[in-house]
Amino acid sequence: MIDSTVHIENLYLAFDDTIIFDQFSLTLQANHCTCLLGPSGVGKSVLLNLLAGLSFPNSTAVQYTGEIICGDQQPLTSRIAWMSQSDLLFPWCSAIENVLSGARLRGTATPALQEKAHALFVKTGLSGKEHYFPHQLSGGMRQRVALIRTLLEDRPIILMDEPFSAVDAITRYELQILVTELFKERTVLFVTHDPSEALRIANSIYVLSGRPVTATAIKMPTTQPLRDFNDPLLISVQMELFHQLTAAKRQST
What is the mean pLDDT of residues 63-68? Predict the structure, then answer.
């Protein structure tokens, strides 16, 4: 049985003469949403790149040691799906073609998967938009298409790098609902700059700060995601989170 807990152990990463991580360890609990916050440039996206196995071509000298494995002691290879700030839709493909693009490349776009895709278009409020091209969809609609594509990859671990930063507040609110519902049986690492978003959707929150980077765990509300913005306890924790982020920005400048 697959254990999608992710263990980051004794991570060391340096670009040229700059040490980003040194003896950095973090555990992402299986079937939980873990949010990372911190000032710009602290290393949130770098950590996602490492988990995804991406290289760092812009640096002339990269030093990297440490271990990133799943709870069953297996590497993360082929267990990860990624969703970024941009929807990354192919402009020459319709919405349904975009969400099935990975499966078609692998030869796994079965009738059952196509039926599942159509059901997700209904679930995400995109019924009737399956054959629209990206330029015919709003930003929020395109991000919903990207959500469907990510889900159809059917990977146990989901990496999300500020996926809703470019949409309006109401659309962001709606997309948070969808993420909480659609990815509730996945291990999600979600990078955001929005403390309210993190407190609404996350099971665990870490604030990254300093150089080398340290991760500070935030004491979470006793309620479970998806949390109500009007919850007085949520407001109290949000103020503490703002204080943590302010301190993190000072440490990282």
Answer: 88
